[in-house]
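Allow me, if you will, to draw on your knowledge of protein folds for a short while. I have a record of one protein: its chain in single-letter code and its fold written as discrete structure tokens. I remain grateful for any guidance, and I place the record below:
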Amino acid sequence: MGGKEPTIDDEIGWERLNPVVSYANRLECPPGYAFGPRIVHDRQFIWVAEGSGKANIQGREYEATGGDLFHYGPGIVHRFEADSARPFVLYGLHFQLHGDIPAAGAVAYRPPAEKAPDWPEADVLPNRLTIGQPPNVLSVPEHIRCLGRELETLFHAIAHNFQHVDPMHHTFNRGLMVQLLMELRAIVRRQSEIGSENGLRMRDVRGRLKANAAMPYEREWLREWTHYHENHASALFRLQYGQSPHDYFMSCKLGLAKKMLIASELAVGEISEALAFSSLHYFSRLFKQRTGYSPLAYRRNGRQI
């Protein structure tokens, strides 16, 4: 199987994302059913569809119920035990972030390996899935709450497709894995926004910046909207969204410029002035830097069929 899977603490860019599902199933656990302590040789998601039980990852204990998603990578020791009264229904998904789909037959897969009972004494390894760079980063911890029908639909479809070994179904699963990872990115971002008072404030700042994108940027807005010092507010915004408030504001301003170039007959200089750019030269240079086109070329290309 071609391609090299990054080590567990490596990052991979979205441009290199080429996921391959090596195993997927849906498991209705008997009461008290347990597996592990063990390790896997690729990455794995365990998503709890129903029921409850316990999860232990490198000695960290979790009470697991419907909607809990667990992630671990190669060499991460883990154990799951279903409740006796309300046992798990689990989806298990083994995958690589970058690999080749075989022309025929099944994807190469190595079954999990059991570990000795004294496994908590083993070395603790980094355990986080990271794709991309800010502001478009996906960073999945080993445990996250993921409620909703969308995830169950994706896990179910992947498990169903895995029963077929032909390249077509492997290709389907590649597309579904990309959908799954994008859904997780949206979930992680929503949780960071609503998980704290600062998260809610930064969400409000983001909305206000977008609403004021036609105006000149005022750094004092950050103090006015948050009652924090501008530097502190800017640092919180960057932590949550992966870019500075000014960078986000300019992206919104350029988004307005794109719409005006396509939908209006205003001259480029008039658009620059309407959107409060400091000069036509700055507008044109920034627009080309961010989009790869001059404003006139963008207008011309955007009106073609």
